């Protein structure tokens, strides 16, 4: 028989209350306080407790339902609807790890309500261990503190049912199985998977322990310790926020009426910028950095040619920075004399071309640096966590190093002195700090915590001009208040990274770092040089952000993977330059938003639902954002020439077509050819006049063509249907409109409905159905269909979709044979193409389960066999297709 929870007497309750009367509670950004007539209250039911917090003039009110029978669970509700609930089942809501095994709180055995604090005592799934939790409500939030008694755990965590709160946002740069943060940033977070161990104040990622939801709740974990965060890991629908510490778990749960109000509550705690570190010119013009242009294959001659080419092609900028590989060795703080024979002359030439000059620098001193032993002998480096008497050594992307200990005044003075002498000697105007200020392998100096190093790094950087690229400091309130520009982690050079640059700025901006810029336009992650369209679209995205951060020249660059020069065409230069000019025209409006942020703390780049919280469709739009209150940015982030644009409620001016549109409305098939950057101005918003002057354009095509479906699939010789929809987005009728569909050689495309019209009115569409048939011997894999609309005597717009020709199981003809060790394998052949359907265990494992198409006796001495894998679909990341050579394909372990 399960014991009922007992209410603790006044004396015990008073003792418990004393333990949580900490100064930190008063520092909670002055939460709205209820008046005496509407104080929180606790009521008891048969299976739990209800903590009720009444609404005020500024807050919606809420309840916290506490389950006391079974697992301890907390369900936050507003107007009777759950808006945030802890997880149940084996995961548990209040969870801890002991002896390597996760446990969680179960039955509540006692509770008290005294002096505004609800104290709960609960059993756990571990014999001899208990949990004590304290809930301290305010009008718009509650503090949740809890600890484990009876054992010494190494982890404490909260787990939530993600769906209970709707969609989840925040976090910052997320590590994901899909490549984040370099090529992936899910938006909302629960639309993908976040697996982020080592979520830490020392992390290079821009992160803060703050999350908010579409239900207008939020979570802030108050810790300086390393966390492990998982959101929808393995698509499990859970959010797990674990802290690697036995100390009491402290969290604030916000309950508001809109997500923006949750954000404002959070900023009220961590602080808003006191200033903007970047100047007006740094907002208005891009900074050019050498990294993605040359990576480490750089020298004085290349840098000067780079600067001269930019100047000659009218690619403006306020500064040019020399990134990695200028030092004689990492930590020497001296130029490599061979690569830079006359750095003073180089600096002068860059200034003569109209750029300020900047250098990349770090706090890492490599073990083979001239300065390493000097710094060790004087105690200038962080100590090792295991033995603070020894210097801490860490591995970074350029070797093994120590880290200058900024908590040591002598070390800081030595470092800043060396850097400032370097800057003075060579007329260097600013710096790009690219470093960690602390590492979890190291020990903080006596009297300091790991989080203090974010503050110390902030204070160091504040002594220098950061030239609009800012610095990656986070977690500490000093970082929030410093007003630095925040640049993203290195991105790839493909379309996935273009999309991630948008959602990552939304994530960073809404955890309290409002002066955001993308990573270098076109990417900087060591991948092949960006394609023309990727580079242009990246520039268009950046033109509608607060700042532009450039590197890859649209004139030409070096492909780091091949060492070959890549030359872009004149259109690339022209459209990149147009993006720079658009941003420069928008600068007065952006500067107004900077000043507004300094007053309110509100982000400049923000999701649509911050401004339109009742527009439910806005909560899942990943490729649009508000730039201040007046500009809705919707640039194209795929290789298509059309896109769907979602407009929230309001009166919107289409800056490309010169038309007024009333929202909410979805613009399907909106025309976005390479030279068009979709953007809309909210005519009723403050700043609309400046935005209109900056963004109005009269050179966008009036029509677009949309192909549907997006990615059709078919089989050899199998007909399928596709539609082209021509839309007139302009303000006048279009004449002589004709739609055509171009298919690959040997394919047939026949119009089933009308493909022409004499006139297409403003806002009207012409939809044509097409019957498309591939040949019977069509190559499997992807093919392209191109739809084109011609109007007004010759103006053309086009778009394209991929079509996948899929094989169907059949037979394989001689001289080819089949073999399998899995059972149930299927095969197909079309000429020299083959398809295999098979399951089983890893090809390299002892079971060696596989299926194969093979030819006997073809491999002899010095033979070469080639096969090309066209496509692979696998239910597991371990699935693989390829080439094998073996004496006996049917024998286990003979896979080759």
UniProtKB/TrEMBL annotation:
Domain called Glycoside hydrolase family 31 TIM barrel: residue spans: 295-436, 490-592
Q: Which residue ranges does the record assign to the Glycosyl hydrolase family 31 C-terminal domain?
A: 601-681
**Entry-linked InterPro entries:** A-galactase_NEW3, Alpha-glycosidase_related, GH, Glyco_hydro_31_C, Glyco_hydro_31_TIM, Glyco_hydro_b, Ig-like_fold
| UniProt KW keywords | Glycosidase, Hydrolase, Signal
Q: What protein name is recorded for this chain?
A: Alpha-galactosidase
Transmembrane domains' residue ranges: none
Q: Name the family.
A: Belongs to the glycosyl hydrolase 31 family.
Question: Which intervals hold domain Alpha-galactosidase NEW3?
Answer: 717-791
């Amino acid at each position: 028989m399960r014991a009922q929870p007992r209410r603790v007497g006044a004396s015990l309750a008073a003792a418990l209350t004393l333990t949580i009367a900490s100064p930190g509670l008063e520092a909670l950004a002055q939460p709205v306080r209820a008046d005496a007539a509407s104080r929180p209250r606790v009521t008891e039911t048969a299976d739990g407790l209800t903590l009720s917090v009444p609404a005020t003039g500024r807050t919606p009110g809420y309840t916290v339902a506490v389950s006391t029978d079974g697992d301890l669970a907390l369900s936050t509700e507003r107007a009777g609807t759950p808006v945030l609930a802890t997880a149940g089942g084996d995961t548990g809501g209040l969870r801890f790890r002991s002896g390597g095994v996760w446990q969680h709180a179960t039955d509540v055995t006692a509770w008290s309500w005294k002096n505004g604090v609800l104290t709960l005592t609960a059993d756990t799934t571990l014999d001899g261990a208990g949990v004590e939790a304290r809930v301290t409500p305010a009008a718009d939030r509650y503090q949740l503190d809890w600890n484990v008694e009876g054992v010494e755990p190494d982890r404490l965590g909260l787990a939530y049912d993600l769906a209970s709160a709707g969609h989840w946002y925040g976090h910052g740069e997320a590590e994901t199985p899909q490549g984040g943060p370099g090529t992936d940033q899910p938006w909302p977070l629960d639309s993908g998977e976040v697996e982020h161990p080592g979520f830490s104040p020392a992390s290079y990622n821009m992160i803060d322990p703050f999350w908010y939801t579409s239900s207008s709740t939020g979570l802030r974990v108050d810790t300086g310790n390393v966390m492990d965060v998982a959101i929808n890991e393995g698509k499990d629908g859970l959010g797990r926020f674990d802290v690697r510490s036995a100390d009491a778990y402290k969290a604030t749960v916000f309950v508001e009426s809109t997500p923006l109000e949750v954000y404002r509550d959070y900023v009220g705690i961590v602080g808003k910028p006191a200033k903007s570190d970047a100047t007006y010119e740094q907002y208005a013009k891009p900074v050019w950095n050498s990294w993605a242009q040359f990576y480490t294959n750089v020298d004085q001659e290349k840098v000067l040619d780079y600067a001269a080419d930019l100047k000659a092609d009218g690619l403006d900028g306020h500064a040019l920075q020399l990134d990695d590989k200028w030092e004689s060795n990492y930590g020497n703080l001296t130029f490599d004399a061979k690569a830079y024979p006359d750095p003073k002359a180089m600096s002068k030439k860059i200034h003569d071309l109209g750029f300020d000059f900047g250098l990349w620098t770090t706090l890492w001193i490599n073990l083979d640096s001239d300065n390493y032993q000097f710094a060790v002998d004087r105690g200038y480096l962080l100590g090792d966590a295991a033995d603070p008497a020894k210097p801490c050594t860490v591995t970074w992307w350029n070797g093994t190093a120590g880290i200058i200990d900024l908590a040591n005044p002598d070390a800081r003075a030595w470092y800043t002195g060396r850097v400032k002498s370097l800057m003075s000697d060579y007329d260097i105007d600013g710096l790009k700090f690219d470093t960690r200020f602390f590492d979890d392998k190291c020990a903080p100096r006596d009297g300091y915590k790991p989080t203090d190093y974010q503050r110390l790094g902030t204070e160091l950087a504040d002594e220098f001009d950061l030239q609009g690229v800012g610095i990656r400091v986070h977690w500490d309130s000093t970082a929030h208040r410093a007003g630095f520009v925040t640049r993203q982690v290195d991105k790839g050079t493909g379309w996935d990274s273009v999309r991630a640059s948008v959602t990552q700025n939304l994530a960073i901006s809404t955890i309290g770092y409002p002066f955001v810029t993308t990573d270098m336009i076109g990417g900087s992650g060591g991948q092949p040089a960006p394609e023309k369209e990727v580079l242009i679209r990246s520039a268009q995205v950046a033109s509608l952000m607060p700042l532009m951060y450039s590197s890859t020249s649209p004139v030409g660059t070096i492909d780091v993977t091949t060492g070959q020069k890549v030359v872009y065409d004149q259109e690339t230069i022209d459209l990149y330059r147009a993006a720079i000019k658009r941003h420069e025209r928008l600068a007065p409006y952006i500067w107004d938003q900077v000043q507004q942020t300094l007053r309110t703390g509100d982000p400049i780049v923000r999701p649509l639902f911050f401004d339109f919280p009742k527009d439910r469709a806005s909560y899942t739009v990943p490729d649009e954002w508000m730039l201040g209150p007046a500009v809705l940015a919707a640039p194209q982030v795929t290789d298509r020439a059309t896109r769907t644009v979602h407009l929230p409620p309001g009166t919107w001016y289409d800056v490309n077509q010169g038309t007024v549109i009333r929202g909410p409305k979805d613009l399907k098939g909106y025309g976005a050819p390479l030279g068009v950057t979709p953007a809309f101005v909210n005519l009723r918003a403050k700043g609309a006049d400046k935005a209109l002057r900056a963004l109005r354009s009269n050179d966008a095509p009036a029509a677009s063509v949309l192909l549907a479906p997006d990615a059709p699939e078919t089989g050899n010789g199998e007909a399928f249907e596709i539609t082209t929809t021509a839309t007139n987005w302009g303000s006048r009728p279009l004449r002589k409109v004709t739609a055509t569909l171009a298919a690959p050689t040997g394919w047939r495309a026949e119009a089933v409905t009308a493909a022409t019209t004499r006139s297409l009115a403003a806002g009207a569409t012409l939809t044509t159905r097409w019957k498309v048939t591939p040949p019977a011997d069509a190559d499997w894999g992807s093919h392209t269909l191109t739809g084109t609309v011609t109007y007004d005597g010759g103006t053309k717009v086009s778009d394209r979709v991929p079509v996948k020709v899929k094989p169907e199981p059949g037979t394989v003809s001689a001289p080819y044979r089949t073999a399998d060790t899995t059972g149930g394998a299927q095969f197909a052949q079309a000429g020299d193409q083959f398809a295999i359907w098979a399951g089983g265990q890893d090809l390299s494992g002892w079971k060696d389960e596989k299926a194969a198409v093979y030819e006997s006796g073809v491999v002899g001495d010095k033979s070469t066999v080639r096969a090309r894998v066209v496509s692979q679909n696998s239910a597991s990341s371990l699935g693989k297709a390829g080439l094998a050579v073996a004496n006996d394909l049917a024998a286990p372990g003979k896979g080759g």
